[in-house]
Each structure stands twice: as structure tokens, then as C-alpha cells.
Specification:
8 helices, SMI1/KNR4 family protein
């Protein structure tokens, strides 16, 4: 029943204890075939611990997805919700920019997030090109450039601050090659 490649720390015994504490009905757990069918249908793989949990018993009640007989549109919506939330934050809340400027997100890593997760989804707006350019320069930097790498960190932060002062979401750009 358990996947031999599993790195799960969850055991059937521990899952059973957790399931027994839930105030909902617990149905027979999902079989290997049912798990595989859900993963194939929706294009993802359950984490090992989650797989063990769902094979030990299937919570059935308000708030719990019905992986066995649930409405496919409802299940798809549940799976898309986290991604949609991030896209909303990027598109409407300057989330990553605020974190970069505030110092709680490393400027380079924040630049990468915007570049790889947000830029295409926002239609590759020209206004983001400088931030993406500084992020690329940070990534490509070598000592032979004769300036400290931190120069590009400062430029990413400055550009993020500038973007926070501008209109959001930015208008779509036309440059498809950057």
C-alpha cells in the first residue's frame, strides 16, 4: 500500500490518531490506484505525508475535499486557490516589492520571484524590465566587473521602491525578447 519511494515521517498509526481527533466522519482511506488517479487527473503529486494520511482514512465533511467522489471543478478550484492568491498579490498588492523594500525578502530572491513568477503573468510590462535587468546582473556578476555585487542588491531595492510609487498593476509591455 505505501509507496516504497516514500520519505514520509507520517505513519498509518500517527495518521489514525490525527484522524480520530477530527470532528468529521472518516471514510475508508484512498487506495494506491485512487491516489494515482487523483494525481494524474489534476497533474500533481501528493506529499508523502499527505498520501499516508489520505490512505489511512479520508475525512468527509465540511471543508474537506472529497478526493474520491468530489466535483472535479470544486477540486480544481481548491488546487488553484494558492496560485491564484499569489497572482492576486503580485498583480494587486505589490507583495514581493514591499517585502524587498522592507528587507524581509532578499532583494535578489525577490527579483527572481518577480522575474520568474510574475513578469509573464502580468504580460511582461516594460516597467519591470529594470528590476529584472538588475536581478540578471546580480546573477551574472563576477569580481572582474570592478564593483561589489551589493551594488546590484541596492539597485534592485531602489527599483522596487520606485515601482511601489507607480501605478499598479503595470501596463503590458511589447518587448517579448527581454
Amino acid at each position: 500500500m505505501a509507496d516504497p519511494r516514500s520519505t514520509a515521517s507520517m505513519t498509518y498509526e500517527r495518521a489514525g490518531v490525527l484522524l480520530s481527533r477530527l470532528p468529521v466522519r472518516i471514510d475508508l482511506g484512498l487506495s494506491d490506484a485512487e491516489i494515482a488517479a487523483v494525481e494524474e487527473r489534476f497533474g500533481f503529486r501528493f506529499a508523502d505525508d499527505h498520501r499516508v494520511f489520505l490512505q489511512a482514512g479520508l475525512p468527509a465533511g465540511p471543508g474537506w475535499p472529497d478526493w474520491r467522489n468530489g466535483d472535479p471543478e470544486d477540486l480544481r478550484g481548491r488546487l488553484d486557490w494558492p496560485r491564484e492568491g499569489v497572482l492576486f498579490d503580485v498583480g494587486h498588492g505589490f507583495w514581493w516589492l514591499r517585502l524587498i523594500v522592507g528587507g524581509s525578502l532578499n532583494a535578489y530572491r525577490g527579483g527572481l520571484l518577480i522575474w520568474h513568477e510574475g513578469w509573464d503573468l502580468l504580460g511582461r510590462p516594460d516597467v519591470l524590465q529594470p528590476l529584472i535587468g538588475w536581478t540578471s546582473e546580480y546573477e551574472d556578476w563576477t569580481e572582474s566587473w570592478g564593483m561589489p555585487r551589493e551594488t546590484f542588491t541596492e539597485r534592485i531595492i531602489t527599483e522596487a521602491r520606485s515601482l511601489l510609487d507607480g501605478p499598479w498593476p503595470p501596463t503590458k509591455g511589447t518587448n517579448e525578447n527581454v
